[in-house]
Amino acid sequence: MSKPMHNDKDLKVEIFLEIKFLPLIFVSEKFIKHKDMTERQPDVNPTLRYELREVAEALSVRKATILSWTRRGLMTSEIRPFNGRKVWTGKEIIRVWRLYA
Question: CA 76, 61, 23: angle at the middle one, nearest 5?
Answer without folding.
Answer: 60
